[in-house]
Amino acid sequence: MSGLLAGIEPIRREPIAIEIARRLVDYLLSGEIGPGQRMPSERQLAEAFGVGRSAMREAIKSLSLLGLVDVRHGDGTYLRKADASLLPQVIEWGLLLGEPRTRDLVEARQKIEEVIAALAAERRTDDDVGELRVLLARMETAAEPEVAAAVFVEADVAFHLRLAEAARNTALRDVLGGIQALLRVWISRVIAAGDRDVSYREHVPILEAVERGDPTAAEAAMAAHMRAAALRLERAIAGRLAVDGGDGGRRGDGGRRGDGEPPG
Is the dihedral of CA 43, 47, 53, 57 positive or negative? Predict the structure, then answer.
């Protein structure tokens, strides 16, 4: 009988503090608490979640270490005011925990990019193509290992945003612009995995299809790039989880990070 069960792995139960942290991120993203506002007390949150105060305390400590909340002793816990660094941290924390809203945002970005590529192929001008060529050339140069990864990230983000301009659809352009934080987190995590040249080469057929005015090919090339990029993102996240202890930081101490550093 034991041989028949050899391929079955036991179900791993994660510490309650990790589950609480995941639900707290979802709560913070829901808009119930505005930036700079005080969150309900530890006791109130523990009662609402149906968990012990010690587990809730550990979850809040994790979010504090990530810079998502400010714990003011004697005053309460506050959601950090919105700034340029907060949203990327929320997004990456959500990716690490499999937070549903963040996963939905990743999926939405994939589909938006495909539509944008097709429309850009139909509506692009010579100026659009020229500027996209410049950005693609910048990506090629930045793909060299001796160039700082941040240079590639900026060129990659700029390429996608410029492609949105070429699509001549302000709604799609604004939506993509509104998730620049996701773009930067996504691309930064992938680039950290050493895939700059691969990513650059995936952009080449996108621009070629846009340049020759082939919306079907442009959409297909973007879809292929998005699928590959999503797989690289998952691999990068898996690598990050392994670095954090082989189990995504899900340690017996309630998931506390040993060095107190935020991911990314």
Answer: negative
